[in-house]
């Protein structure tokens, strides 16, 4: 009781400070804007150079210099106030979610309140610590007693005396959870029980130990994550983006990040997570869009990735070749070492042409692609093939991206990995996927494409009730250690297809929740959408995402998404019993619902 009273008082103090600061900072920003306008007007008057005499000229320059310094100072003050205001607003609904009492062995124990962003008062005193700060690692790593954490390359020994979680709603403290004594993770279970009627949510307050290890992994340039359905791979990927932006805050901005997503509907689904963590929205693109953008730099128009020969080209480039590639200046090729691989020779020839100012005006038509295809006994070279060759030959790097993040990685074929390893050979790469969620063909061994990488796995599924998780686990193949965390809930039910209207009618009273009606194919989904015209049809490229009420979509789009209620239409279709991938499709489909799962046969 005393604890609750003390903590409630602390919260109210901080809440009061946040609201007061919001008012003060808003006024300060307005005043700074007015001041900046005055200085700017001054600058345009003074900027009118008086070059009458030598001294007048010097005076003019000095005044310009003073005014620009004043503008720089104003800008810096504006930025500081703007960030504080943004953080105060972000923290208002939930100032912090946890508290650590730490003993560094030197004086009285210190209390650290952890929030989505850090917050300092006007004197620079930390009131809330950012969840990404080094000290927060002890919270997520679930350590108590004598332990340590890493900060600025140093190991800091510390004793964790206490670890508490809070349920907070603006200035009201609803619950304090002593995490040493709590069984399970009540806060996690409470969060998981909420409705899913929009995009994905950030998970800062309840990040689990194995997820934290992925978010904070900093030893390897390439991190691979293989995790069961609903294990938080997408959530962890986004939290890691935020973490990397914090870790590299001196030299990275959100513009340095690229997230590869399977389709537009998915990009929409994850939108909002990073702004909720105080970061700007990073760039997202599908792989095809990325290739189209890179292709443009080489004057190539890429409309499709189909029928490509990248794996064969990679092999050809790795071997020595005595024959001059069709269209290449023979003198240039003759300059190169004949024992080198074709790739090295082409790169050397390119450099020689560059040095002798003989580079082609139009790179896209540089080599004789048709002859080259014949020479290499290939059916032809698509625009995508040519792009790959040009990237290899010119050693082109997408250096504007410092952090590359790839979701649903199991769906990418070897050509994608061959291309990405060339394009992003210096970037920090995080790749997440589930080798059992491949819907067509076989997933390649992604690690084999990287010289050095580490693979971490996640085998606890958070998304669904125990009963749904147990149900989809039977299709999860070699994920034999798949774990559930939620209570058992309702058993999945199998009903005839004709019952669809009845099923929907029973779910209608909960229309504030989301229902996903999942068809095997796009045409099947379109047919259902005609039957239920008020429903939302989700297509791969539609700039929409999950909404409360009825969403109709094909399995390929449902992947990565979740609904309060999932209805799998035509569960007995041959689509779900195809020899190689039928099980995977069942696994993906059955793992979309969080509260109920209905299979229509
Ligand atoms: N630590 C956590 N705290 C709270 N919620 C979590 C946590 N981890 C995962 N979740 C929730 O579990 C659900 C599944 O997460 P997510 O979509 O990131 O999983 P996934 O592994 O990417 O799923 P899939 O394999 O289907 O793509 C989401 O609702 C997410 O918010």
UniProtKB/TrEMBL annotation:
GO terms for molecular function: 3'-5' DNA helicase activity; ATP binding; DNA binding; hydrolase activity. GO terms for biological process: recombinational repair. Residues 15-42 form a coiled coil. Residues 206-495 form the UvrD-like helicase ATP-binding domain. Keywords: ATP-binding, Coiled coil, Helicase, Hydrolase, Nucleotide-binding. It comes from the Bacteria. ATP binds at residues 227-234. GO terms for cellular component: cytosol. The keyword Coiled coil applies. This is Superfamily I DNA and RNA helicase-like protein.
């Amino acid at each position: 009781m005393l604890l609750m009273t003390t903590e409630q008082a602390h919260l109210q103090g901080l809440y009061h400070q946040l609201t007061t600061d919001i008012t003060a900072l808003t006024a300060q920003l307005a005043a700074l804007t007015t001041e900046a306008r005055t200085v700017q007007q001054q600058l345009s008057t003074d900027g009118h150079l008086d070059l009458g005499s030598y001294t007048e000229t010097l005076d003019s320059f000095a005044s310009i210099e003073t005014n620009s310094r004043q503008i720089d100072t104003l800008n810096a003050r504006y930025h500081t106030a703007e960030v504080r205001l943004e953080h105060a607003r972000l923290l208002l609904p939930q100032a912090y979610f946890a508290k650590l009492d730490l003993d560094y062995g030197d004086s009285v124990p210190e209390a650290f309140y952890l929030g989505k962003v850090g917050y300092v008062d006007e004197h620079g005193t930390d009131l809330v610590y950012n969840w990404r700060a080094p000290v927060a690692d002890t919270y997520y790593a679930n350590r108590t007693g004598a332990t340590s954490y890493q900060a600025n390359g140093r190991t800091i020994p510390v004793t964790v005396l206490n670890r508490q979680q809070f349920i907070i709603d603006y200035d009201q403290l609803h619950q304090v959870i002593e995490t040493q004594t709590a069984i399970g993770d009540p806060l996690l279970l409470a969060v998981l029980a909420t409705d899913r009627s929009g995009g994905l949510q950030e998970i800062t307050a309840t990040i689990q130990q194995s997820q934290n290890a992925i978010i904070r992994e900093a030893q390897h340039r390439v991190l691979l994550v293989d995790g069961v359905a609903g294990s938080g791979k997408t959530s962890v990927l986004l939290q890691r983006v935020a973490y990397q932006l914090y870790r590299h805050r001196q030299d990275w901005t959100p513009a340095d990040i690229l997230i590869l997503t399977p389709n537009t509907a998915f990009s929409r689904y994850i939108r909002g997570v990073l702004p909720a963590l105080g970061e700007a929205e990073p760039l997202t693109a599908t792989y095809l869009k990325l290739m189209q953008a890179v292709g443009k730099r080489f004057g190539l128009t890429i409309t499709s990735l189909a029928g490509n020969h990248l794996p064969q080209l990679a092999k050809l480039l790795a071997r020595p070749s005595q024959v001059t590639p069709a269209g290449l200046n023979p003198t240039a090729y003759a300059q190169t070492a004949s024992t080198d691989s074709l790739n090295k020779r082409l790169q050397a020839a390119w450099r020689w042409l560059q040095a002798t100012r003989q580079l082609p005006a139009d790179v896209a038509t540089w080599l004789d692609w048709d002859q080259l295809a014949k020479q290499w006994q290939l059916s032809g070279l698509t625009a995508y093939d040519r792009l790959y060759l040009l990237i290899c030959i010119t050693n082109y790097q997408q250096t504007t991206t410092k952090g590359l993040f790839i979701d649903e990685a199991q769906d990418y074929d070897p050509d994608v990995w061959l291309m990405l390893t060339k394009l992003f050979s210096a970037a920090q790469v995080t790749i997440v996927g589930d080798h059992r969620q491949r819907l067509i063909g076989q997933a390649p061994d992604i690690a084999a494409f990287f010289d050095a990488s580490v693979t971490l796995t996640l085998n606890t599924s958070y998304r669904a009730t125990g009963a749904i998780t147990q149900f989809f686990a039977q299709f999860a193949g070699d994920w034999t250690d798949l774990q559930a965390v939620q209570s058992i809930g309702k058993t999945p039910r199998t009903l005839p297809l004709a019952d669809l209207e009845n099923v929907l009618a029973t779910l209608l009273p909960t229309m504030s929740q989301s229902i996903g009606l999942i068809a095997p194919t796009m045409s099947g989904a379109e047919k259902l959408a005609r039957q239920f015209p008020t429903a939302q049809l989700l297509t791969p490229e539609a700039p929409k995402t999950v909404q409360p009420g009825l969403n109709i979509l094909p399995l390929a789009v449902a992947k990565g998404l979740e609904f309060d209620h999932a209805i799998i239409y035509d569960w007995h279709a041959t689509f779900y019993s195809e020899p190689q991938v039928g099980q995977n499709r069942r696994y993906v489909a059955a793992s979309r619902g969080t509260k109920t799962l209905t299979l229509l046969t």
